[in-house]
Amino acid sequence: MSIKIEKTLTPKQKPNQNELGFGEYFTDHMFIMDYTEGKGWHDARIIPYAPLMIDPATMVLHYGQAVFEGLKAYQAEDGRVLLFRPHQNMERINISNDRLCIPSVDIDFTVEALRAIVREDQDWIPKAEGTSLYLRPFIIATDPYLGVRPSNTYQFIIIMSPVGAYYPEGINPVKIYVESKYVRAVLGGLGFTKTPGNYAASLKAQVEAKDKGYTQVLWLDGVEKKYIEEVGTMNVFFVIDDEVITPSLEGSILAGITRDSTIALLKDWGVKVTERRISIQELYDAHARGSLKEAFGTGTAAVISPIGELNWDGNQILINDGNIGDLSARIYDTITGVQNGSLKDQFGWTVEV
Ligand code: COI
Question: 10 Å Cβ neighbour count for 24?
């Protein structure tokens, strides 16, 4: 399938690179392709960024049949434009698609679409320290119909936003509230998918945690509220003595691409890294005996975000005195260095646009 291109006649003014925030500005173009039952994906096109015209009965608005992804583009010093592991995102969107009864997409073609839209709006990639162009591919169910069933038509859309740090703290440690009232996901549910409902389910806890002065919540398992899951925008890692532990992928948390990259780097450096169930009590016990050295989150938007404080049922612990740890800093420097082309890409993670 070829991609038709219609260029904008009214390019927008670009925002100040030092005041981007996250997801506030959008580039000049977007990519769209349609799916029709019996015809498959068709009509791939890049068009000027504009509001969608949709029927108020459009199924996604009522039943949330949708999936999304997030990845970033960087401009290297030598002029190359790089995407970080885009095939992984498109493989994961198909995993989400399968669970949400959405037809799968062709991985190579959608990576081509990502490259094509970045090429179109390449001059939107910010260059200031800690900035990038965030790509948001997503798929929505578009049948205008109020019965509950999978849609017969869909749109796959890519929009792009020049962004700075996801958390206002930047690379400084965040304060996280351990959530013991609400749950995010249970086994058999949608926890491993990137679907809007998971994020809607997280809002109430997030608002209550914010009111208490915390940036985000750490989710515990949905059955016993005992085992650590994820932060919702990040997977989590804990450095206990000389071992790095991260919750295993049991089906209720997202298989993060930054998580996977972090594990690969740690193994390459000879650091012991273990994927297993870890309870919040075990973490607090490790802290009590002085063994919890560092904690950090990993995610595309957040990159590496050190965790400086946890609050579990009123018990507050300070991790690494609230400072960024050596290992967190090393992982951050290495991943961002590979992403922006300033470090050698020994794993073949970057794809040139
Ligand atoms: C990402 O890290 O790309 C995410 O999707 C997290 C969040 C912004 C929803």
Answer: 12
